[in-house]
Amino acid sequence: MKKVVLGIVFTIMFAFSSTAQCAMCRAALETEESGVPAEAVNDGIVYLMAFPYLLLLIGGWAIYRIIKNKKNNKKKLP
């Protein structure tokens, strides 16, 4: 059940299209005639924002594996 709920949460979280832009970037890009540079900046910000979350996910998974292995080793000892 936990896996299903977790899968639904991640699906919903990544399904929404995110647009992020700081105030300075927005002011600088509003003067542009086409929206292409603004979209590129938005994509870059979202791209940079994803790495901390990926690092936390990988770190959490590694810690989970270490704890799980320690518990399994304790059960094997007589």
Q: What structural category arises from helix and sheet content?
A: mainly alpha
Order of helices and strands: HHH
Count of alpha/pi helices: 3
Major sheet size, sense and barrel closure? none
How many strand units? 0
Cα separation of the termini: 33 Å
Structural Rg: 21 Å
Helical content stands at: over 70%
Net shape: elongated
- Name the average pLDDT: 78
Low-confidence stretches: none
Percent strand equals under 5%
Topology of helices and strands:
Elements (H helix, E strand, L loop, with lengths): L1 H14 L7 H8 L5 H41 L2
Defining traits:
78 residues; mainly alpha; 0% strand; elongated
Give a quick precis of the structure:
Helices cover 81% and strands 0% of the residues. It has helices spanning 2-15, 23-30, 36-76.
Description:
This protein is an all-alpha fold. Helices cover 81% and strands 0% of the residues. It has helices spanning 2-15, 23-30, 36-76.
